[in-house]
Specification:
Order of helices and strands of chain A: HHHHEHEHHEHEHEHEHEHHHH
Family (chains A, B): Belongs to the SIMIBI class G3E GTPase family. ArgK/MeaB subfamily.
CATH topology of the largest domain in chain A: Rossmann fold
Number of strands of chain A: 7
Helix content of chain A: 40-55%
Protein name (chains A, B): Transporter
GO molecular function (chains A, B): GTP binding; GTPase activity
GO cellular component, one term (chains A, B): cytoplasm
Number of helices of chain A: 15
Strand content of chain A: 5-15%
Organism (chains A, B): Peribacillus simplex
Oligomer: homodimer
Low-confidence stretches of chain A: 1-48, 137-143
Largest interface: A-B, 50 and 50 residues
């Protein structure tokens, strides 16, 4: 679909409601400077390029994968169309991974854990992609995974692929981009997807909605930490990992594990037929890491056998469909010129008690429909 | 606005998404049987009747008030228009009350409390309207305030007006009807509005969004009760009333009060500049009831002086505007014939992994816009 055929309310540049700081032309120029990217932004050979890119990604070509992700993350309209075409073409090759969400307060040791855990999996023949959903990235330009040196060993591993959080956009936009990036990684043969997030705002719920297993990384001393923990997060977890169970810290970590197990015991399991538990491990010594992978394998086997795994994936796709649709619906209405003009007036009348809310809503819809005639 | 001028997507009969069991004709016939109601459903003299009804309500005529509320609660299109016209005409006479939300688990003694509290206020010259938001009413046809005998004394009081929860509709519909009923009551001179709710589902948040002061009625023995209490409710309250502080129960009630005070002390106040506290009272002996009214008067004075009272009312009106608008927006889209037909197909394609969510959303909006051309 070319740009001029797009209805004006559907604006992929700004699909998630964020104000792009990049003009499409600037984005294009920047891409040209990167060299080969310019090849597939030309419309005349778009289909060839999608095929090329698809072939590259399916063969596990990391440069092509990175390019595909860049297109997904781009705010330019033609990149959007290209990326959707690419995604559609690789869709039959997606889904064959275990998607693991990893959350935890800053300081819980997420990077070191992912470094050790990811390297262990690579050594066992897995291909590991590490992505991030970072609610703070739109403010400070990316705080997690941004500093690749934090995972030096894993970053150098040819079987691993680390991609920082998309640095621009609202959580909604980051949400879409991370989901679609995950699909491309799966198409490229990555069979373990780790999605890191900081326990802030809505990010855990969003990560929970896109992964199979949701893991919470905690520090020793449950009591204090729970105080500062976001309400409701315990209800989302399939497993809690008490990190830093090494040296003098071992007895405390073991005690913490019991405390969390006691709490989990009282909660409804996040996944039907899977009783979430707490575990200890040390990202430094590697102790507990193989056992943790056994837990994940057990989770995958158990939930695939019961059908819960497949059903959750289906439901996640469905929920994501409605969530994006609702988002787009609000954009269509609230970005309508007539509504943008009328709303402040109606708001004022309603707030000052000169109009009933019901009458105001009716008037707004009348005005909206008039613009569509 | 006559029926045929209404765009088809704006369906006041079903405005809150509930499936009405009443056909407009049936409703009309039923109203005719009630006698005078039939007078104002005839369109030719609608403006006269609005004036008549308005006059009656402003003079405090209870029969006219009841009729106005019946119109607000009606699911028939012409009743809807009539009710909106009526509401608009009395709007300048609304808002001059204190709106008090009263929540508490079943068994906390809400009816007895309202009976005693309401009677006390009537004796002091106030006019008290008692409404209800009952999330269970759509299931069992109204469980709270439905049995008027529970408040026999208050129901007989000429200064009191008791109206059970609208028995039909989703919580969204009940929400609108209760808000608009509250406005009519204010126009009829009721200066204390008590809105009762059962602490179930979303009802407390909805009641909180329409009242000035939110009161939680509790039983003695805070610890046990808190376990079963909905999370987040403590953050909504302006005051906690430990009921049944009579006889042997007094020491326990006093202890319970302290326990709740300790909890409240740790929470952010629900109303800026007002530190919520716990109080004891007995609906049987009446002890503590005058003091409770003093608290409410103090609340009203304090928040009006600081402007918090007025600002909250303005914000409540604004939030209600957006909440109803979003609701209507979803109705417009999801009830569209093209969307109703297309969605199951898209859902299936997305759930089986044959289409990306982004592409599905784009397709749905294209189809929706095509129907509006």
């Amino acid at each position: 679909m070319s740009d001029h055929k797009k209805p004006e309310w559907f604006d992929p540049n700004n699909q998630e409601g964020f104000a792009s700081s990049l003009k499409p032309g600037v984005e294009l120029a920047a891409d040209r400077n990167k060299g080969s990217t310019s090849k597939f932004v030309k419309k005349q050979d778009a289909s060839v390029s999608v095929q090329e890119l698809k072939k590259g990604i399916l063969s596990g070509d990391r440069a092509r994968l990175a390019k595909g992700i860049t297109l997904i993350e781009s705010n330019a309209a033609h990149h959007f169309d290209f990326a959707q075409e690419l995604l559609h073409s690789v869709l039959p090759h997606t889904g064959r991974s275990i998607r693991i969400g990893i959350s935890g307060v800053p300081g819980a040791g997420k990077s070191t854990f992912i470094e050790t855990f990811g390297s262990y999996l690579c050594d066992r023949g897995h291909k590991v992609a590490v992505l991030a959903v970072d609610p703070s990235s739109s403010i400070n330009g990316g705080s997690i995974l941004g500093d690749k040196t934090r995972m030096e060993e894993l970053a150098r591993n040819p079987r691993a692929f680390i991609r920082p959080s998309p640095s621009e956009g609202t959580l909604g936009g980051v949400h879409r981009k991370t989901r679609e990036t995950m699909l491309l990684c799966e198409a490229a043969g990555f069979d373990v997807i780790l999605i890191e997030t900081v326990g802030v705002g809505q990010s855990e719920a969003i990560v929970r909605s896109m992964v199979d297993f949701f893991m919470l990384l905690v520090l020793t001393g449950a009591g204090d930490e729970l105080q500062g923990m976001k309400k409701g997060i315990m209800e989302l977890v399939d497993g809690i990992v008490v990190n830093k169970a090494d040296g003098d810290n071992v007895p405390l970590a073991t005690r913490t594990k019991s405390e969390y197990n006691r709490i989990l015991h009282f909660l409804q399991p996040a996944t039907k037929g899977w009783a979430g538990k707490a575990y200890t491990c040390s990202a430094i010594t590697g102790k507990g890491i193989p056992e943790l992978w056994d837990v994940l394998t057990d989770f995958s086997d158990t939930t695939k056998k019961s059908g819960v795994f497949q059903e959750r994936r289906r439901m996640q796709a469905r929920e994501w469909l409605y969530s994006l649709m609702d988002h787009q619906l609000k954009r269509m209405f609230y970005k309508n010129e007539a509504i943008k003009e009328l709303l402040p007036i109606l708001e004022n009348e309603v707030m000052s008690g000169n109009k009933t809310v019901t009458a105001a809503v009716k008037q707004a819809f009348q005005a909206f429909m008039d613009t569509l005639k």
